[in-house]
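User: My collaborator sent over this chain with a note saying "see what the structure looks like." That's all I know about it. Can you take a look?
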Amino acid sequence: MDIGGALLSQPGLTASSVYTTAGQFRFAAPDFALTMNGLAARTPDDRFTGQGVFSASRYASPNQRFRWELGGTASAFGLSNAAPTFGWQLLGREHLTGSLGGVFAGVAAGSVIQSGVSRRVLNTHAGGYLRIDPLGRDELSGAVAYTDGGGMPDGTHFRYGDAIGYWTDRRGAIEFLAGGGVRTYSISRSMYSGWGTASVILWITDGTGIVLAAGRALEDVTRGVPSVRYLSASFRFGSSGSTSGGATLVHRVHPEEDGGRIDVRGGDDSLRVVTIRLRAAATLELMADFTDWEPVTMTQLPNGDWTLERSIAPGTHRVAIRVNGGQWAVPPNLPHVSDEFGGEVGLLIVP
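Assistant: Without extra context I'll predict from the sequence alone. Here is the result:
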C-alpha cells in the first residue's frame, strides 16, 4: 500500500498537486497467479481519478522448459465528471524459459466500454527477459506488441505498435526500475510517441519504504486510460521486494547429514559427476537446465549415494529433485530462487 502525493497532468484536467493512494496484491503459486492493483488520486477541490485492474492466470505444470499460460484481465477507470470506462481481455501465451532468461509470445482479445460505446480490442505480443545477475538482482526485459483498439462512432480507429524495455535492479534496501518505449501509429507518415518512467524504493524497515517516481505514460486504449505525466513521492507499507526474483539462502546440511546434499565434481573430459546424498530414498530424479528440463533418473551407488554423469558447462545452473515420485523440490544445501511463475528451483554453481 502506497500513500503520498503527486504532480499530475492528464488531458481534460489542469495540472495540479493531488493526494494519492495505491495498493497491490499478488498471490503466486506454481501453476496459477492472482493480481489486484488500484490507484486513486484526489485534488484539494475534490476532483478525482482512479483505476483498478484484476488479473488471473493459469500455467502449465512447473519446471518445464515450455509453459503455456491462459489468463484474463478486468479493469475499470474513472474520472471527474465523466462516465466510467470498463474493459476485459482474455489471453493465451507460451513461455520458453532457460537458466538465466526466457522468451514469450501471446495473443489477447476483449472489449472496452467507453462513453457508452463498446469496441473490440485485439493484441499480439512477444518479448523476453535476461537475468544479468544469476541471483536475479539485475534483470533486463523487453517486448514488442501490436494493438487494434477498434473504432469509434466518429470513424476514429485505434491501431498502433509498441516497443518497450525495462531494467530492474535490487540491491539490499534499494530497488530501482527504469523503462521506456516508443509507439508508432503510422510508419509511412512517421507518427511516433515516446514514453519513459523511473522509480526508486528505499526500504527504511522490512515493512516501510519511501518511493520516488516520475515519468510519462501513453494512452492505454485497452482499458480506456488517457495519457498522463506524473511526479510522485509516497510511503510504502508492505513487505520488501528486494529479494523478489533473487535467491534466498536456506539451511545448509552438513556432509554427514542425510538431507539431500548435492555436489558436483569433474569427470572424464568435459563430463561432470553430480552426486546427491539421500540414502533413504527409493528413487531419485533430477531435472535442470542442463537436462533441458527433462526428468532424469539417478543411479544409486553401493554406499547409498545417488549419481548422474552429464556434460555440464561451467557457471550457474538451475536444478530441482524429486524423491520417490513426490513433489519437485530444491536440494537443501542450495540457494532457492523463484521463477516468474511462482515456482522454486535451486542455484547450482559448476566450477
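A starting point for your reply to your collaborator: Residues 113 and 273 are 60 Å apart (CA to CA).
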